């Protein structure tokens, strides 16, 4: 497998020369895609996970339950693979390490795609973004105009100023690439804007002057330790055990 | 206390780890010190819960003989709450969605906690 560390980073699972799965923190996995799209329920997913031990694979367990066909499972696995590769490429890449010893297996591997073909596809997806922006660092707020379609209204409803395109993809249970592409178009049409830092981060504090415990008067050069403070504190009578 | 320096550290955690939604620094008795949270997250509730959570996790680690506590994580079907001890007097809470990579979070938070600890030590 190929481990790509960074934000969002990703893990490329390889088998006999083809990529069979890509998992990334930047893109919803097969579970989210299957459950959020309503193909199967969360209960069915967990039941299939348990049954996969006896069935030999999660794919067989899902198909055996009857609510989803083999072609649909393959389509979702392939969509998650493409989306994971896009998510890894759209973020920061710090290091790539080939791990030949790992025994980690993907939950739901696809039949596979040649690495060169995957690379070409992902490069095409990145180039096709109308307005370039980061699906991780750039956070979104509603723009000057209001969208007309239901899908776009849902994206605007999630654009709280704190959420990035990746966060909106997870919040809506959709793949990262279609959400990023749609947001890119919406930025161009002034339906969304990039949030200013003051909106993206909302720091509040309560003005605590210090966390230090009560210290003896100036000049002593000695401090009280928490463990030596008598209990109950402020009881009026000093019974400190630390040297004065 | 240098709140700007603390805010810069919290900002880095949220910017560098995909899936982090909210961050809180609180006193270990559950009083919030600095927060960066969405409107639906109540800082005082999160701080109080995190303080209790950390206390129990620390005691469990000690009783079971697991060594020093590094982090305690609540796994939900829709996301995570990770709590870290900054020092004996403070803690940090990180909330994340279901896509959060916990390994990446630990990798980023470990040095951040050291820096936060030294900022908070006068």
TrEMBL record, chain A:
Region (Disordered): 211-244
Domain of life of the organism encoding this protein: Bacteria
Name of the featured protein: Uncharacterized protein
Taxonomic source organism: Lentzea albida
Automatic annotation (TrEMBL), chain B:
Domain Roadblock/LAMTOR2: residue ranges: 6-96
SMART domains, sorted: Robl_LC7
Transmembrane segments: none
Protein name: Roadblock/LAMTOR2 domain-containing protein
Domain of life, per lineage: Bacteria
